[in-house]
Design goal:
Elements: H1 16-19, H2 29-32, E1 41-45, H3 50-59, E2 68-72, E3 76-77, E4 84-85, H4 90-97, E5 102-109, H5 112-120, H6 123-136, E6 140-145, H7 160-178, E7 183-188, H8 197-202, E8 207-210, H9 218-231, E9 237-241, E10 249-250, E11 253-254, H10 264-278, E12 287-290, H11 298-312
Parallel strand pairs: 1-2, 1-12, 2-5, 5-6, 6-7, 7-8, 8-9, 9-12
Antiparallel strand pairs: 3-4, 10-11
Helix pairs in contact: 5-7, 10-11
Length: about 325
């Protein structure tokens, strides 16, 4: 494992009010006055249901101008030829964009055979994806390729060569999307060779989203943050958060989202740690990704309100969305 940044381990103690003590001026001016960085965005993944949209819109003022992202199903990979299959609800996307949100299509694939075909000849997929994005008014794509094989096993048949090929595909896809002012993000776990974090980081991806950090246990989450920061530029990192507990098992083990309801104390510890990362230019990340229904609990909204308030109070007149 590459050497990681020790500063990322610094965590303010106790409850959220203590963890975010900068609100009360309990930290030095040098620590709390970074130069106008954007507040970390908040990214939701879901179906785009009315309930989900209304819940986010009703709480959006708590985010102090931070950018809201939403991933919906809008296109897929053709299993037989690896071309792009168009799809998506244009009216739904327009509704969300009308609220100032950035809407991305989440595209998944679980077959390494299909992915190898895609990596070998990416242009038909890329052309179709761009056409789809322009037609629907999307802001970008989120790749969620998880080739665990069928039946699922770890390690899968994905190889180190596949990981390098995937990173090469990301680079070409991102370059094409950027020509149309579209973004590319990628989701990863660190348990398959398909996710070569160093190669991914060397590409021009906009966001690299850690699904490792879904872990409900904070010590585990912080360890996985160190894995991410050992390879990925922090300003590209999306911190995966799974606010809905799940007691079920996945085919490869327990659900990383964890079995327990989130309490105020658990949320406070998680967001206190993330606030400490945001207080340092060298560990500030890009966004938090709330998986996976677009609905989060009042406990989480309460914590997020305190989290963003603590960062926004550092703005010193810079305007909404910065600190």
């Amino acid at each position: 494992m590459a050497q990681t940044k020790q500063t990322a381990r610094r965590r303010r103690p106790g409850a959220l009010a203590c963890a975010l003590a900068v609100v009360a001026g309990h930290a030095s001016s040098a620590e709390v006055r970074p130069s106008g960085r954007q507040l970390p965005g908040l990214w939701f993944w879901g179906s785009g249901s009315n309930e989900s949209i209304d819940a986010i819109a009703g709480n959006q003022s708590l985010l102090r101008g931070a950018q809201v992202y939403y991933s919906v199903g809008a296109g897929s990979v053709n299993a037989s030829n690896a071309h792009f299959v168009k799809g998506g609800d244009k009216a739904l996307i327009a509704r969300m964009r009308g609220k100032g949100w950035k809407v991305h299509s989440i595209v998944g694939c679980g077959s390494i055979t299909t992915l190898r075909s895609l990596f070998a000849d990416p242009q038909p997929f890329i052309s179709g994806a761009i056409e789809n994005a322009v037609e629907l008014g999307l802001d970008g794509y989120n790749l969620d390729f998880e080739p665990y094989d069928s039946p699922i096993k770890i390690p899968s048949s994905a190889t180190n060569a596949d990981g390098l090929a995937y990173a090469g595909f990301m680079r070409v896809f991102a370059e094409a999307l950027h020509q149309h002012d579209l973004e590319l993000s990628v989701d990863y776990f660190s348990n398959l060779a398909i996710w070569n974090l160093a190669a991914m980081n060397s590409s021009n991806l906009d966001t690299i989203i850690s699904m490792d950090t879904y872990a409900q246990d904070n010590n585990t989450m912080e360890a996985y943050t160190q894995v991410a920061y050992g390879y990925v530029t922090p300003s590209k990192v999306g911190m995966g958060i799974c606010p809905q507990p799940s007691p079920t098992n996945k085919p490869y083990g327990p659900d990383p989202c964890g079995p327990l309801p989130w309490t105020d104390a658990m949320v406070a510890e998680r967001l206190g740690y993330l606030a400490a990362l945001m207080a340092d230019d060298s560990t500030a990340f890009r966004m938090m990704n709330m998986c996976c229904s677009g609905i989060i609990s009042p406990t989480w909204w309460k914590g997020l309100g305190l989290f963003y308030a603590s960062l926004a109070t550092r703005s010193f007149g810079m305007g909404p969305g910065t600190f």
